[in-house]
Amino acid sequence: MTETPSYEEAREELIDVVRRLETGGITLEESLTLWERGEHLAGVCQTWLDGARQRLDAVMEPESE
Amino acid sequence: MALETSLEKPAPVRQVATAIDGWIARLGTVWVEGQVAQLSRRPGINTVFLTLRDSVADISVPVTCSRTLIDSLNPPLVEGASVVMQAKPTYYANRGTLSLQARDIRMVGLGELLARLERRRQLLAAEGLFDAALKRPLPFLPRRVGIVTAPSSAAERDVLENARRRWPGVDFAVAHATMQGPRAAGEVMEALARLDADESVDVIVVARGGGSVEDLLPFSDEGLIRAVAKARTPVVSAIGHEPDQPLLDLVADVRASTPTDAAKLVVPDVAAEAQGVASAQQRLRQMMLGLVAREQTGLEALRSRPVLADPRTLVAERHNEVALLRERARRTIGHALDRAADDIDHHRARARALSPLATLERGYAVLQDHAGHVVTSVGGLAAGATVSVRVADGRVHADITSTTSLTDQETTP
């Protein structure tokens, strides 16, 4: 887990976390750990998307000026 | 009939010349085919001197011919013409030269020419010179375009102008050559070799603005065809569009119908290409933007799910659960206490019903000794002992004065 997962890995795991949280049947402690993991994964996904958007903007903005 | 000579017995020149003449004379007359490379009529001399050149190899032989024979030819014999002649190899002893003495000269006619071209085509095709596998693709953007054409010809102008219109940055290397007549094939080969040797030339165009079958004969020259087949650089043939295509069209890597067409083939339309690239870039970017936007929407949908958006729900659910359980627990305990109280009352009533109090109220009393034991017999009781009498509403403390046993009473008073 030290390595940042790829966007797809993070998204797949995030979907899994949400599914498990919604299904229930786990301990409170487990659900809190899962939720924290979910928040982290959502942050990773957002970072990837922001990075992609920045790279697109970096190419397109100088031309539109 | 070798001459027998030695250092001591050398043969005189006349004898050697006669021997050579004899050997050559034995060749007899032959039919020979070639191209007239040179034709010189010297005024006042009845003999015309020609040079007959092989159509492929750089080999030629002098020919002598009577002026009468030359003048009788129709069309008139000119330099570059292909001829078939009947001639006798002759040795001129007085000058030590050899020449062919022409007895009959036949111009190679148009039909004959085409038949020969066809035979040549078949031979070269059988050799594989025209194989599709040998065709090389033209470079998309050539560094330099080599052009073999006649100086200041319409063909040259057509290629240069049309190519520059499509791509202003095109670079040309023009090698001029005679594009007609007996010297054409050789000069075109030379120009081709020069351009082929230039490392920066990526494609060579051989351009000429069409012409008659005879005009285009150099472009079916076997030597030129072989040179093009061997060339390192791709060659484009642009020799006008004629029904009888010269063999150059077949051996060239690409055949253009006109010099203008050749310009289109060797140089891309840069404006159209640039537009294509720009449009592809635009589509690429739109696609990427759409992709990121779609993923963003998906991520937001995930984040807005209650379990992630408001994690307090995770605790709240359990909080409610605990409250409900507490409520249930309290209710349950209440019921249990009530039931226990009822139970106690019941037992109390039963205990009361069983107690001796009612009997005491009817006048009975219970005697207890000093230790609290119930006394049921006079045995063991002595006068002076202290006893307690339990009646309905209290106790009587008494001292025993005497005891009487009922069984004793009948025997002892």
Topology (SSEs and partners):
The complex is a heterodimer of chains A (65) and B (413).
Chain A: H1 7-23, H2 28-64
Helix pairs in contact in A: 1-2
Chain B: H1 13-25, E1 30-41, E2 47-53, E3 60-66, H2 67-71, E4 82-92, E5 97-107, H3 110-127, E6 144-149, H4 154-166, E7 172-176, H5 184-197, E8 201-207, H6 222-230, E9 235-238, H7 247-251, E10 254-255, H8 259-266, H9 270-303, H10 306-309, H11 312-354, H12 357-361, E11 366-368, E12 386-391, E13 394-399, H13 406-411
Parallel strand pairs in B: 3-5, 6-7, 6-8, 8-9, 9-10
Antiparallel strand pairs in B: 1-2, 1-4, 2-3, 4-5, 11-12, 12-13
Helix pairs in contact in B: 4-8, 5-6
Characterise this structure.
The complex is a heterodimer of chains A (65) and B (413). By secondary structure, chain A is mainly α. Chain A has helices at 7-23, 28-64. Chain A contains two helices and no strands. In chain A, helix 1 runs antiparallel to helix 2. The model of chain A has no long low-confidence stretch (mean pLDDT 83). Chain B is an alpha/beta fold. Chain B has helices spanning 13-25, 67-71, 110-127, 154-166, 184-197, 222-230, 247-251, 259-266, 270-303, 306-309, 312-354, 357-361, 406-411; strands spanning 30-41, 47-53, 60-66, 82-92, 97-107, 144-149, 172-176, 201-207, 235-238, 254-255, 366-368, 386-391, 394-399. The N and C termini of chain B lie far apart (210 Å). The model of chain B has no long low-confidence stretch (mean pLDDT 86). The A-B interface holds A 7, 11, 14-15, 18, 21-22, 28, 31-32, 35, 38-39, 42, 45-46, 49, 52-53, 56, 59-60 and B 285, 288-289, 292, 295-296, 298-299, 302-303, 305, 307-308, 311, 314-315, 318.
